[in-house]
Amino acid sequence: MELTSDWVVGFTDGEGCFYVGIYEHPEMSAKYQVLPEFRIVQHKRDVQVLFALKKFFRCGVVRKNREDRMELRIRKISCLSSLVEFFERHPLKTKKNVDFKRFAKIVRKMENQEHLTRDGLEKIVRIAAKMNTGEHSRLNEILEKISG
Question: In this structure, which CATH number among 3.10.28.10, 3.40.1710.10, 2.120.10.30, 3.40.630.30 belongs to the domain 5-147?
């Protein structure tokens, strides 16, 4: 299956997710781990689309999500950097582009190792709290801990 850039943009607008998880991790210098990821979940009958996207981006893992669902997940920072460059050259058309731009800022901060400092972590958490993650109260709690 050969995919075009326009098809990938449209499919991601409908099915993609830009997510940034932030978890306590005492061994990290800032005491938290930042895990950005790009995900697309599909019914197992359409798993070939996920493998085609994996080939298109030259990154990621296709794995079982739950029962009859499969997912493509991209977490490696170098792969996320390439993904960010792709979507900057080929912008998303829906409101998902707002979350993508925030996601891109976080990936760039991580490329610069900013997530390893308290100040950088605080900036990342503030950006992530504006994303459509559904974890705003948890991220606000983290902000209180690291800035207080």
Answer: 3.10.28.10
Residue-wise pLDDT for 79-92, tens only, equals 999 999 999 999 99
Contact residues for 21 (Cβ-Cβ < 8 A; gap 6+): 34, 35, 36, 37
Angle, helix 47-57 to helix 77-89, in steps of 10 degrees: 90
Backbone angles phi, psi at 11, to 5 degrees: -65, -45
Q: Which tens digits make up the pLDDT trace of 99-128?
A: 999 999 999 999 999 999 999 999 999 999
